[in-house]
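PROTOCOL LOG
Step 1. Enter all chains and additional molecules of the complex.
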Amino acid sequence: MATHEGVSAHAHTAPTGFLWKYVFSLDHKVIGIQYYFLALLSVFVGMALSLLMRLHLVWPAMKLPFIPGGIMKPEQYLALVTMHGTIMVFMVLTTAPQSGFGNYFLPIEIGAEDMAFPILNMLSFWTTFVSLLVILAAFFVEGGAPIAGWTSYPPLSAVGDASGPGEGLGQTLWVIGLAIFCLASLIGALNFITTTVDLRCKGMSLMRMPLTVWAWLVTAILGLLAFGVLLAACGLLLLDRLAGTSFFIPGGLVFTDTVMTAHEGGSPLLWQHLFWFFGHPEVYIAILPGMGVTSHILSNFSRKPVFGYRAMVAAICGIGFLGFCVWGHHMFVSGMSPYSGFAFSLLTMTIGVPSAIKTFNWLGTLWGGKITFTCAMLFALGFVSLFVTGGLSGLFLAQPTLDLYFHDTFFVVAHFHFVMGVAAIFGIFGGTYFWYPKMFGRMLNEGIGKVHFWLTFVGVYCIFMPMHFLGLVGRPRRYADLSGVNFLAPLHNVEYFISIAAFITIGAQFIFLFNFLYCLKWGKKAEENPWRGTTLEWSIPSPPPFDNFAGRHVQVYRGAYEFSVPGASQDFIPQDAVPEKEGGIH
Amino acid sequence: MTSRMNETAPDGAERTASPGCAKRIASNQRGSTAPAAMLALVIVVMTAITVYIFLKKIWWFPPSITDEGAQFDAQFLRTLVITGVIFVAAQLGLALALFRYRDRGQRVRYFEGNNTMEIIWTLATLVLFVGLGIYAEKAWASVHFVDASPSALPIEVTGQQFAWNFRYAGPDGVFGRTRPDLVSASTGNAVGVDPADPAGKDDIISPGEIVVPAGRQVDLILKSLDVTHSFFVRELRLKQDAVPGMTIHLHFTANTTGTYEVACAELCGLGHYKMRATMMVVSEADFEKWLQEQEAANQ
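Step 2. Run joint prediction.
Step 3. Record the structure below.
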């Protein structure tokens, strides 16, 4: 550690004063919790938006709360669709798993006192917070929130309110908010990579790092390379909207019989390439930390090492690398060259391979183990089931022939909700039930947590499995009203079923929220290592002191998952346990 | 419990039983059997219901009406069988693993991995997935790698917020020039045909309804006036974005007469949900009759 003393900005003295301790804290643990609470707030906002959508779809004449005028208009529905996707993808799935848990536990799990750049860390949180405010502000300006979806394709999103309500100031705020989010993410990614490369304690070789750390590292690399492209795309879109440029807008567009003469020569496909070059790595950013947490938890509660640790590392790296090579599978019917489609298709089928390896290895981790069903373990097991379901539907969508039918249908909605909207969320829940004792010094109530798990696990299957069948029938996405399409009439019962399941499942999340908030103050006090884990976070108090290891010299002697090692005195060996002189523990 | 003693772990090492193995630790067993059984049951039931719905085709595609559509259906079934087998195997494998190895006080079988198995299932997955992908390209190629035949019937499809308009070239077989500044819904010039171009005089505009002859290849020419739309007919198993600034071709040969819905499949604004058209596939004779009626109306 001696070589890294100059790096830490907080010079070994704890901060004093409310502002420095809880608001502008430089402590990675406080910042991690801040990100987590931002995600918690955002997920409830996102769920509220989707609940309004589901209620409107099956009861279109119902007067709904929060909707100006009561009865939802089509543009309001599309605004909800847009903001639901935006808030969930960016403010929940890109924050909690990486910036939330990663910030908190990456330094601890590698034996460091803090991140490499604590001031940048603090700034990246507050920048993210500002971006959330800017995006949410779109709801409250004239014209309301944008209606172009979280994917914001031009020309719909580029020509201002000529293309529809919400496309004026609301869309501009959305683009600016997103650009600010990109800046925050880029800074955060730099921090994560530098910390992992530079601040590992003695003995913490790359192949002894927990899989959570590998996941956070590769996710950060993805973020560093992808968010720059999104930032550029947002910049170009803003220029088109405000400065009369034509990156994405071709000439001769006609809106209400009037030719738009201000733009010429742009390409709508350019946006799609830029957006999806970011957008595909983004979904791996959303899922990789959850995969890392799942491996971590499955190993812990099976009392067995992760099966095939090296293969798991290779799979994480493979998913990360291939994630940059497949963006065109979002564009099979876009007018892009069909030969490119062929290439992207094969690469996309290939990315199923590392995902399959991870699934086999999760089963291998369970096999022969001794499984206890804590809430964390239930969510990790649920993750595996949900990821299998979501991943397999991807095999259909990866084939351009099949995508000719399924593109922009609810089959796609089913696919991405299973992998992102549920599996990744289960990764967050698993991480929460697992790490809450360490973060807050208290145990969550396991009984209440189990109710939360069962309602949620059954609930999400009830919501999203039927969407595959909607897709088979050809139900298009982003339709504000289903009544006019004859071929959708037989699906009405399915839509009802989904809406009711959504209502119940969203309600179940309040059980989680109650458990979370109640136990902050009144939960049973947590000991240092309630789960008998091996990684470094379990070798420090709950919650940890300001500088994590209280100044002690940290050294690790073995890999991260030494459970049930034959000949050992107990069924786990902490990474930093000094090796016994006799017995030869490897 | 006796069968578990002296077993061989996958990496070949012997594991000898400890004396405690045969004794069930009652509290652990009671504690983990209920959640294990419940979770395994939920997974098994979910898997069974899903397979049932797919097998019984409770919600399914409409019948396809083209040869390319039949290729789609075949490739879909191929993919469904493969993913279905993997789905059932993985979900049941998970249910089995979590139930069988619930904590009953047993000894843990320690193994860190198995390189042979890793290589086998990696290669098997790679061959299967990439093989499936390559096989799918045949159908893709027949739609997109070959152009429409020169004798195909060209029909121009123009999307706009929020309607589809279809244009036929008329007896001269040539589409007249269009100009965006001439687009005028109120005077019936939906796609902006230039009156100065004689080739456009016999063009037939059909708002909201596309009529095609069965058995003859059709070459759709997709355009958009304003934002990106997408032309989707389920029975054709075809979808193609209509992008402003681009002219995109899509060909098919319908073989079954009937009336089919055209739905917009790319978010195009507040009226996206109501941007629809009708496709009528008629006999060659009926199509000629329809054309003549349209030409007469043009005069």
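Step 4. Note key features.
The longest helix of chain A spans residues 268-302.
DSSP finds 15 helices and two strands in chain A.
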